[in-house]
Design a protein that fits this description.
Elements lengths: L4 E4 L2 E3 L7 E2 L1 E5 L2 E6 L1 H5 L7 E4 L4 E4 L1 E6 L1 H7 L3 E2 L6 H14 L6 E6 L10 H7 L5 E5 L4 E4 L1 H7 L12 E4 L5 E6 L1 H10 L3 H8 L10 H19 L3 E6 L4 H12 L6 E3 L2 E2 L9 H10 L5 E2 L2 E5 L29 H13 L3 E6 L2 H18 L7 E4 L8 H6 L3 E4 L15 H5 L11 H5 L3 E4 L10 H10 L13 H7 L2 H6 L17 E4 L16 E6 L2 E5 L2
Parallel strand pairs: 1-6, 2-7, 8-15, 9-10, 10-11, 15-16, 16-18, 17-19, 19-20, 20-21, 21-22, 22-23
Antiparallel strand pairs: 1-4, 2-3, 4-5, 7-24, 11-12, 12-14, 13-14, 24-25, 25-26
This protein binds zinc ion.
Length: about 550
């Protein structure tokens, strides 16, 4: 058999123990044909074979991004980005220019706002002073707060308030009108809807389907946003992704794109189980898993949120928040209910991925997975916990013992990449820093690791994430939690593939597996860790097709 394409003169790290290194790889029919020494692989060239000289650069299996929000990230690429901006002047100038560039948009939406952007809490009056006559809004970098001006609040119908579920709030002022501060999704959904993105937010918000079903024109708008997201991810070397919100609509859009030749990565999309659902909703999860199960699109898992985040003190803790005695927050599912749900999902042969940030949420989740295992017997379920920002030391060995994957985000620990140390470390409290954002300690005690970004919560750049993973300084008095270069690369490739039940297809460069690979613009083993984040991606290939090329 002759090769379609050969990459040679490379430093290949295969992530496969039986042949960890190679110089060249031959691809045919979207699969890896052979991998090994340059002379042996080059012999597979025919007259039509394309040959790419890697010039000593590193080639790795295509990156597996284990936790991201593709649809939201893609949509946000078209928004105004205000991360790093401070003060009224800078904000006014940014919105003014963005408004001029987009005269027809019903909402000017900004992303990445810092809570301390102004020297006081942001109100609608601040934003009115920037643009009084057009609806404008901006989202905090953690995506848990939106600030809107009066025009946006009025257009959204929430200037005089809104009934919202517990934990979601249109903050009201002394004048009986909304202040402009909107806390959590149900409070800001009406503002998001102004921008025409309500459909794309269902996957994270309610897990329900759009109704009525979007017509072709609406689907085209949505697909264009997903395509922008896919292109952005391909430029980071990503060839597989585990989406962490979703519904059938998300998968239907991706399937249309697959048929149109626009799908440039393999995507897993979960069924999102919310507290308002009962167990029969899992029929829909099973149907999605049955209807979407090929090499490119898959469901096969259920996503749940057990708690919120540390900064807003909605993460569920075993002990009181040190800066708010008496408050531990609460889990979004009680232990009893979660045990029942986890057991039923597991019984149906599906995987479970649970967002758990506080040590209380992590324990509730582990207990639920243990209950499922007790009820159904041990199977190759690979249930996973997303984030694990705080964990009680006694729970750590239970991850490995129960076969639970720790899905972790190197950009997340305060100080590691873009997030500031405070207020997060203050909320956790100094006495618990040693139990916070553990990586190596979890791995040493048997947990499987998968690394990710949680884009658009942080930058999706794998190279920046890698730099964060390899340069993160321990908090005072705490252990060094870095796992080293090879384990980091593993967590971004083979580790992620295993956590997604995709290890037979992606994550390693082995004959017969998918021709998904990434060429780093340099020798990853020779680049100083501090320089990894500014190192480019020379080439990305998915299924044997070039999805990004910068050489
Ligand atoms: Zn997420």
């Amino acid at each position: 058999m002759t090769a379609d394409l050969i990459l040679t003169n490379a430093r290949i790290l295969t992530m496969d123990a039986s042949q960890p290194r190679a110089e060249a790889v031959a691809l045919a029919g979207g699969r890896i044909l052979a991998i090994g020494a340059a002379a042996q692989i080059e012999a597979l060239a025919g007259p039509d074979t394309q040959v790419i000289d890697a010039k000593g650069r590193t080639i790795l299996p295509g990156f597996v991004e284990s936790h991201l929000h593709l649809v939201l990230g893609g949509a946000e690429l078209g928004h105004l980005h205000v991360a790093g901006l401070h003060g009224m002047e800078a904000l006014r100038e940014a919105f003014r220019r963005f408004g001029e560039a987009h005269p027809d948009r019903p909402l000017l939406m900004a992303q990445g706002a810092d809570y301390a952007m102004l020297d006081h809490p942001v109100t609608r009056h601040d934003l009115d002073a920037i643009l009084p006559d057009r609806p404008i809004a901006m989202t905090s970098h953690d995506h848990h707060t939106v600030w809107a001006n009066t025009a946006a609040l009025r257009a959204a119908g929430i200037l005089h308030g809104l009934d919202t579920p517990h934990g979601h709030e249109v903050v009201m002022g002394a004048d009986g009108m909304a202040t402009g501060e909107l806390l959590e999704f149900e409070a800001f959904a009406p503002v998001i809807a102004l921008g025409g993105e309500a459909r794309l937010n269902l996957g994270i918000a309610t897990g329900e389907e759009p109704s009525p079903w979007p017509d072709a024109a609406e689907r085209n708008l949505d697909k264009a946003k997903i395509e922008a997201g896919l292109r952005h991810c391909a430029a980071q070397g990503i060839t597989s992704m585990v989406n962490m919100d979703g519904n059938r609509y998300t998968l239907e859009l991706l399937r249309e794109m697959q048929a149109e030749g626009r799908l440039t990565a393999r995507v897993k999309v979960p069924f999102h189980f919310k507290p308002h659902m009962d167990l029969s909703a899992l029929d829909r999860a099973e149907a999605m898993s049955r209807d979407f199960d090929d090499d490119w699109l898959q469901c096969g898992f259920v996503k749940m949120f057990m708690d919120g985040v540390v900064d807003s003190r909605t993460a569920f803790m075993i002990n009181d928040y040190p800066d708010q005695p008496g408050h531990r927050s609460e889990p979004l599912f009680s232990q009893d209910i979660f045990n029942q749900i986890a057991t039923e999902i597991d019984r149906r042969g599906l995987q479970i991925a649970v967002h758990a940030i506080g040590d209380g949420a992590v324990r509730t989740t582990i207990d639920g997975f243990a209950a499922a295992q007790k009820a159904n017997g041990r199977r190759d379920s690979r249930h996973r916990i997303e984030h694990i920002e705080l964990i009680d030391a006694g729970d750590i060995p239970r991850l490995g013992a129960l076969g639970i994957t720790a899905s972790l985000q190197p950009p997340h620990p305060p100080g590691a990449m873009d997030f500031p140390l405070m207020p997060t470390l203050e909320r956790i409290g100094r006495a618990r820093w040693k139990d916070a954002y553990l990586w190596k300690t979890l791995a040493d005690q048997g947990a499987a690791l998968a690394f990710a970004s949680d884009w658009p919560v942080t930058d999706v750049s794998v190279m920046r994430g890698m730099q964060a993973a390899l340069t993160r300084a321990p908090y005072e008095g705490c252990a060094d939690e870095r796992v080293g270069l090879m384990a980091t690369l593993h967590a971004y490739t083979a580790g992620g593939a295993w956590a997604a039940h995709r290890e037979g297809l992606v994550g390693r460069l082995v004959p017969g597996m998918a021709a998904d690979l990434v060429m780093i613009d340099g020798d990853v083993e020779a680049i100083a860790p501090e320089a990894l984040g500014s190192t480019g991606i020379a080439l990305t290939m998915c299924g044997g097709r070039i999805t990004h090329q910068a050489i």
